[in-house]
Amino acid sequence: MPEMTTKDHDKDLTSLRERMRHSASHVMADAVLQMFPEAKLAIGPSTEDGFYYDFQVSHPFTPEDLETIEARMRNTIARGLPFLREEIDREEAHRMFSQQPFKLEIIDELPPGEAITIYRHGDFVDLCRGPHVDSTGQIGACKLLSIAGAYWRGDESRSMLQRIYGTAFESQEALEEHLKRLEEAQRRDHRKLGREMELFIFDPIAPASPFFLPKGAVIYNLLIEYVRGLYQRYGYQEVITPQVYSTELWKRSGHYDNYIENMFLVHIEEREYGVKPMNCPGHALMYASRMRSYRDLPIRYADFGRLHRYERSGVTHGLTRVRTFSQDDAHIFCTPDQVHQEVENFIEMLLESYRLFQFPDVRVALSLRPEKRVGDDAMWDRAEASLEEVLRAVGLPFDLKPGEGAFYGPKIDFFVPDALGREWQLGTVQLDFALPERFDLEYIAEDGSQQRPVMVHRAMLGAIERFMGILIEHYGGAFPVWIAPVQAVVIPIADRHLEYARLVEKRLKERGIRVEVDGRSERMNLKIRQAQLQKVPFMLVVGDKEAASETLAVRLRSGQDLGPRPLSEALALIQDAIDSRA
RNA sequence: GCCAGCGUAGCUCAGUGGUAGAGCAGCGGUUUCGUAAACCGCGGGUCAAGGGUUCGAAUCCCCUCGCUGGCUCCA
């Protein structure tokens, strides 16, 4: 027998948990049926770190119900009932699930000839492909977590079911560890940190619209400044465009037909205007403002313009889904031949920035032609192939998402998870064949003919707001020094050290370091504690010794005490940390 | 938009039909201190908004707004 490797062990554990959780969902459905015999069962799979089951019941589940269900589940688990697999034929399946319309729907969609399997434990039976653990006794420690609504088949036009989420682990310790991780993640929640660190606020007077406080604005502007630096190297030109356009523009761009319910409209002097949800039509106008030669291409217009989108109530979320934001948006106008190189250059720039921020779990998706689309198949073939080639050329693993592309072209999206593992789209690069058509964009080719350029929409960080939200959670508020809103706090021990503290402040400010002096008549311990909570990278303590010797006692937010350092050395230390962007 | 939950002081929260509370923060004072919370005192509320039930509502009901967790959506 070969020795079992860690990898095998992980795989076994994953498979055990999957079977256990799937089994737990059956046990939960059993408990729900005991309490509500008229409940209709939908589906109950295992998930990344738990399971759920969807039910249709007229009685809305309450938190108390959850406790009762959990108690019944524990009872079933304690009884150690075996899971029994059976194969049945279609007719029998119909009979068996005659009271379960959702199950009937699933049965009818199974390809003919495929075996129909059911799993039993005790008196409960469910249509199910399996696999399960051998007996309910093997389920381990489980806990129900929340109640949510979910559409049958994920279809908004069909009934809303009640979903119960839960999780199960092989041991009580593993379960508790998981719950602790969740709590830990909640401490990193950017909404909580944003308030505590005075980065931004929200006010119901402008729902889903952040107000960036001075410290938040520092980070916001530094991100933009960073992107500007990249643009300089990668050949982008920044432009500034209007905020509000007559709806004639949105009719021409197609937004009026496809996006109007997400737009803020204003009526002035009997004319209708739309606040821009995107920059692209404005850039198309600039492109079209003069004759273009193939020699001018590619043209790369970058725009940090503020966008407004009326996101449906219920979908907004802290900084990560807002109604007003700006993106590191740019549009590249190029010849079809240049598309590959442009997309590749963009991905290179994007990966450079993601490396800087040390995102460990970037997921890449290539979205292909949707059913409703513009352009002929040959064009889509070329466009999709071109994006796929680039991904292979740069060696990025990616998921294919058929049907998920924009109506105007295929796209590559970059997703990064928040503290709780929810994925958010940050970067995107989209090919667009529709807008150049609608705006009649042209360039004169080498042979003198008029040609249609391709438009590439692309954003690297995506919405700065969303990016900041992810960044806050990623670092738990302890930003790298170059981006920390306050890089150093000078902490005088007693009032008599204030004068020297001010001198230190002056020296740091001369270097452009973002420094504050905590000059309150408070104890040093309190000042250190508060600087720690604010995650300030450098705490510079000054007392009698330091004032006398022109030194600083340097403390890091890790808790490490570097002891007294000459002023010049401390300055160099901070400067290095900033310059390295680490 | 849909399902469910929540909304009490700046923040975190207690208060389930009978006079609105605590801690932190804030303000005033005392303390001048060596690496994560000194001490004493004082203010602070349209209990989200509106309507209803009741002798009486933070508490029960209706409606609106906002937030949270999901679902759908993310052009």
Question: Could you please describe the fold and organization of this structure?
Answer:
By secondary structure, the protein is an alpha+beta fold. The chain has 18 helices and 29 strands. The strands form 7 sheets. Strands 11, 15, 16, 17, 18, 19, 20, 21 and 24 form a 9-stranded mixed β-sheet that branches. Strands 1, 2, 3, 7 and 8 form a 5-stranded antiparallel β-sheet that branches. β28 and β29 form a beta hairpin. The protein is globular. The two termini are 47 Å apart. The mean pLDDT is 93. The structure holds one RNA strand of 75 nucleotides.
What key phrases describe this protein's structure?
582 residues, alpha+beta, nine-stranded mixed beta sheet, five-stranded antiparallel beta sheet, 25% strand, RNA-binding
Shape: globular
> Structural class per helix/strand content?
alpha+beta
Number of strands: 29
What's the Cα radius of gyration? 29 Å
The chain-level mean pLDDT equals 93
Distance between the termini: 47 Å
Strand content: 25-35%
Question: Helix tally?
Answer: 18
Indicate the percent of residues in helices.
25-40%
Largest sheet: 9 strands, mixed
Low-confidence stretches: none
